[in-house]
Amino acid sequence: MAWVGAAGIGTCRDEVFDEEANELQVAQREWTNVMEQRAKEGYRDGVDAGKEASLQEGFNQGYKQGAQLMVKSGQLRGTLSALLSWCRLQETGCALLARISSLLEAVGRYEEQVLRRLSSFNQQPQPAELLDAVQDMDLSNDTAQQEERTGSEDRVLNEQAPALAADSVKSSAEAALPNSESHKMTEECKGAEQNLNWLIQQTACLMEQLSISADVVQQVQQLEN
Amino acid sequence: MAAAGLLEEDLLDAIVMADVRFHGEGYQEGFAEGSHAGITEGKCYGALHGAKVGSEIGCYYGFCSIWKSLLQNCADEKHSKKLKVLDSLLGMIQNFPYEDPTYAKLHEHLDKIRGKFKQLCSLLSVQPDFGFCNKDSELAF
Fold first, then answer.
1. What's the alpha-carbon Rg for chain A, to the nearest Å?
2. Which are the contacts of B99, defined by CB distance < 8 A and separation ≥ 6?
3. I need a surface site. Which of A129, A209, B2, B108 has the fewest CB within 10 A?
4. Which residues of chain A have a CB within 8 Å of the CB of B33?
5. Where is the Essential protein Yae1 N-terminal domain (chain A) (predicted)?
């Protein structure tokens, strides 16, 4: 607020006595202080008013974004849930039931992960949080772990995504990726999208095994980007 | 005398105006800052709410459309009632503007869909498992 300081300057040219000058200086300082105070008050009022005026708008924007982001994975979850209940009624073999269940859990994990990312979207990500998120994803890809991230991040992510989903379906042992904090938001999104596509493909594949008619399978495949 | 009085008035005005001006300039700076913070904060809350509704509605839609296709492929007469309920629920879901936070009947409409879904499940005699890892999941409905 440089303009506050500038306000008092140039008002005391008539310096006849030192005493007067001192008085003027004191008065000037006081004036500056009062004005600074006023500006601060104004700033605080402004922050409150600005926030109040924009919160709803921000909420609306975010809401739309969040809804669009999750409707597809929700649909896949509903699809798998329908398949599971159908197969239970048809008394399908245990192996297939277990596979549907694990895919369903993987979709659940994917959604949790997206939700966590949404809630921290506008905050500075903490390395510990990201590490937690990666651990929750149940990935244990040795090659990805050993790979140095000196080259293209995208390439690493591309290789990782299918393995990541595969591992989370198998719910294998947990392992953390050491350099996870270096992921950028967009790259993470790309990886997650591939993850969802992979889950869709797996679901479609499973439906074919269950000899479910082609038009139903196609309906699921359409979810893919 | 009149001129001096005017000058005094001007001076007083200037003092009062300075007060207003400083407050105003601070206010503007704060308003810009606050607007930015409000958008960010609002987006965060909104995204979470939207995500939950989007996921839930998507889930019902996926569930119903798959069951509809499965039953239709059965070509069994006794499924006609189930198909009727499925169709009515699918219609409710498709008419639900899940992306629109300003939709006044959002909760009312969503509750109706939930009720209809329960009805459908008992008709199909299934207890849907939506694969929530833990019961406390924010997405669980």
1. 30
2. A63, A64, A67, A68, B50, B54
3. B2
4. 43, 46-47, 50
5. 42-80
**Closest residue to B29, CB basis, from A43, A74, A79:** A43
- In this prediction, does ipTM exceed 0.85? no
* B84-90 long-range Cβ contacts below 8 angstroms, 24+ apart: B85/B116, B85/B119, B85/B120, B85/B123, B86/B120, B88/B116, B89/B60, B89/B64, B89/B113, B89/B116, B89/B117, B89/B120, B90/B61, B90/B64, B90/B65
Kindly report the three-state secondary structure assignment for every residue of B64-80. Answer: HHHHHHHHHCCCCHHHH
CB A45 within 8 A of CB B27: yes
Residue A5 with chain B: CB contacts under 8 Å: none
What distance in Å separates residue B2's CA from the closest CA in chain A? 24
User: Range with the lowest mean pLDDT among A161-165, A179-183, B86-90?
Assistant: A179-183
Give the residue among A125, A153, A157 at the shortest CA–CA distance from A139: A157
Question: What is the arithmetic mean of pLDDT over B72-91?
Answer: 87
